[in-house]
Amino acid sequence: MLLIEIGAAFGQEKNDMKTKFSVVITAALTLAVGIGSISCKKKQPAPADAAAKGPARMDVTRAPFGTLPDGTAVDIYTLTNKNGLKARIMTYGAILVSLEVPDKAGVFGDIVLGYDTLDGYVKNNPYFGAIVGRYGNRIAKGRFTLGGVTYKLATNNGENHLHGGLKGFDKVVWEAEPRMEEDGVGLKLSYLSKDGEEGYPGNLEVKVHYSLTNDNELRIAYEAEADKATPVNLTHHSYFNLSAGARDILGHELMLAADRYTPVDKGLIPTGKLAPVKGTPMDFTAPMTIGSRIAKVDGGYDHNYVLNKPEVATGLAARLADPPSGRVMEIYTTEPGIQFYSGNFLDGTITGKGGRVYAKHFGLCLETQHFPDSPNHPDFPSTIVYPGRVLKSLTIHKFYAK
Ligand code: BGC
Prior knowledge:
The chain is mostly beta strands. Helix content is 7%, strand content 38%. Bound molecules: beta-D-glucopyranose (BGC).
């Protein structure tokens, strides 16, 4: 195996952490990523074996992942923590391409939907794994008024604006800076969204910091700074399937720490009410199988839940479990809401990683966020970022098996 130390590209980071870790490009991995196939169900040593052989090598590697139609090169980074969990993230859309975590037998599986190659993401991506912005979810009629000015945004979902518009943050190439960190490995991505992009006011500098910690957490920390007041609602849009594609998500058990949700109209725009979930199929305050009541929810789940935790504090938002594999994911966030989307628009027309057909409910999203259409609802927590104020937001996905 050829190991090449990354020099200038990693700059100071590498020097700082040199004594603790080594950052390597693994030629074999480069080749594997280059040909675009990483197995979904690779048998890895069970924890007991791993302990006997010593911990997995913690590292960050980089490889080319293809070129966009305009010739821009896209890289993919593989983050591996000391327990062998792996997250692959590419510079296009800051997309989490795969996430391998163990089941209760120690078998690793990729628990996010996506494609084997860049081409799939470019041609048809319903936001698989992407960072969504400038505004996650919908803004009614693509219109809002701020400081006495009415702004008109791109509309890409009927008459509404969805997930940042025609070319949101999921379709741009981010600058990447890999990092070895005290408690794991990380990748810092940055993007400058220009004044007027998709109709939004002001330049917005966005930073997204993914970390894969040795406590088996995938942490996503966001920062944004604007030079004019603008709405911002950043989120991560992975479609999770904790069975690693063995079955759909209707048998997954979900707990949402939310007593209320924001009911929507036919266009999925909040009516403005915060309705109690108690006594309805929307209630996930105690763990419930997703499929048990989904037929009673028109169109399936695609709703923003109002989290019970105090605003801004990092509190528990959700716990998702796949009982047969034993995989569990907990989500903690500083955000006031979480969009539970049960993959209702997947319809079997997408063939994803490893040739798997993604039928309805084959993956689900749990998008930590501010509420949809907040710029048009003064009663909702504000999404406006003002010049001189830095938006900070943190979401943690914690993995274990039982
Ligand atoms: C939205 C859905 C939308 C989907 C797009 C979700 O965040 O809530 O309504 O269809 O993203 O993939």
